[in-house]
């Protein structure tokens, strides 16, 4: 699997932001702890980090308390809301060409999920995956991706774009009936994969909006956006993303270096050039995880220590006091919701 891009455009947050505004939530709460300001999102081609996008989506999930939010937002997202990429897909020659272009330029819009597809004799199968560890957020991101795939398929091919089946790896949601309304096919929950299956025949459908000169112009613009995105990758952000953990596990420097296809020495040198130490990034990530549990859970200090990859509660408490100047218990007492 390809490494996810470390930067993405603020454009990808626009639909979610607008949707939440209509529900009465303002940017003060939506952008909490993201280090972003309203003006950042007003520029659709402002580059933001995936960590900032993740925190924004985490805020949305925690504020809304709506298990069907991701699917609804994805379903309501027009293909043109992807900017030049969406416009380029609309004026493509066929549905297959539009799908190929969407995949080739997916990093300009899709953040925090991995999307791939395969075509066989009978079907085109879209595979969607997400490595997010916070399950409500993971489901939100997957639902949004699935909803967008279906919405855009119908924009391109009309009623012909009816899936034969949808598989997801999570339990049936409270909005189960909405799945049936949107996908119009059997939906299977608690599977091992997340997929949408379509008949392969619809890929050959020619698009009414095909306009080759417009397509060529948009392709140049889209290429420039991809080039800018690639040039803006940052070693500190790459390490932060590589430190996204499984519960209770954090990779060490050697493991992160291997994931980033470089030697530990090279990784140390690149971080040093930015004035950053690997241990500081690791400690900061563990501290954030600890504070989330301290504020929002009833886990014991020992249990939180284990989630932060410490061997015992005493070592964790000493480390936390070194990071913040207070004990975990003191932090919990002052920040408990």
Describe the protein's architecture and organization.
- With 337 residues, the protein is of the alpha+beta class.
- It has two domains: 7-229, Alpha-Beta Complex (H-NOX domain), CATH 3.90.1520; 235-335, Arc Repressor Mutant, subunit A (Orthogonal Bundle), CATH 1.10.10.60.
- It has 17 helices and seven strands.
- The strands form two sheets. It has a five-stranded mixed beta sheet. The protein has a two-stranded antiparallel sheet with strand order 1-2.
- A hairpin with a 3-residue loop joins strand 3 (114-119) and strand 4.
- The longest helix has 23 residues, at 135-157.
- The two termini are 39 Å apart.
- Residues 1-5 have low confidence and may be disordered.
The count of β-strands is 7
How do the helices and strands follow one another from N- to C-terminus?
EHHHEHHHHEEHEHEEHHHHHHHH
Apparent shape: globular
> Any idea what the CATH architecture of the largest domain is?
Alpha-Beta Complex
Biggest sheet details = 5 strands, mixed
Distance between the termini: 39 Å
Fraction in helix: 40-55%
Strand content: 5-15%
Domain count: the total is: 2
Strands in their spatial order, largest beta sheet = 3-4-7-5-6
- Which secondary-structure class do the elements indicate? alpha+beta
CATH class of the largest domain: Alpha Beta
Keywords: DNA-binding, Transcription, Transcription regulation
InterPro entries: AraC-type_N, Homeodomain-like_sf, HTH_AraC, Tscrpt_reg_AraC-type_HTH
GO molecular function: DNA-binding transcription factor activity; transcription cis-regulatory region binding
Domain HTH araC/xylS-type: 233-334
């Amino acid at each position: 699997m390809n490494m996810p891009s470390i930067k993405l455009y603020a454009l990808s947050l626009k639909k979610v932001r607008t949707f939440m505004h209509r529900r009465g939530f303002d940017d003060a709460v939506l952008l909490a702890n993201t280090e972003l300001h309203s003006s950042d999102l007003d520029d659709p081609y402002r580059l933001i980090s995936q960590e900032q996008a993740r925190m924004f989506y985490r805020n949305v999930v925690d504020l809304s308390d709506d298990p069907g939010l991701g699917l609804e937002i994805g379903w309501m997202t027009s293909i043109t809301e992807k900017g030049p990429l969406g416009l380029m897909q609309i004026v493509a020659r066929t549905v297959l060409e539009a799908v190929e272009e969407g995949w080739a330029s997916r990093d300009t819009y899709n953040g925090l999920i991995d999307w791939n597809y395969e075509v066989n004799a009978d079907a085109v199968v879209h595979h969607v995956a997400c490595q997010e560890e916070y399950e409500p957020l993971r489901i939100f991101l997957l639902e949004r991706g699935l909803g967008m795939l279906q919405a855009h398929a119908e924009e391109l091919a009309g009623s012909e774009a009816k899936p034969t089946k949808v598989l997801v790896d999570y339990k049936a949601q409270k909005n189960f009936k909405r799945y049936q309304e949107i996908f119009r096919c059997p939906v299977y929950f608690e599977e091992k994969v997340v997929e949408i299956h379509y008949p392969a025949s619809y890929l050959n459908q020619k698009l009414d909006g095909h306009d080759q000169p417009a397509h060529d112009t948009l392709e140049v613009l889209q290429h420039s956006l991809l080039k800018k995105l690639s040039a803006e990758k940052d070693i500190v952000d790459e390490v932060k993303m590589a430190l996204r953990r499984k519960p209770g596990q954090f990779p060490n420097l050697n493991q992160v270096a291997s994931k980033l296809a470089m030697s530990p020495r090279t990784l140390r040198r690149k971080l040093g050039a930015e004035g950053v130490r690997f241990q500081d990034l690791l400690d900061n990530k563990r501290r954030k995880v600890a504070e989330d549990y301290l504020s929002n859970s009833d886990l014991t200090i020992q249990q939180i220590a284990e989630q932060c990859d410490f061997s015992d509660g005493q070592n964790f408490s000493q480390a936390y006091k070194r990071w913040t100047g207070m004990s975990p218990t003191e932090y919990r007492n002052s920040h408990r919701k």
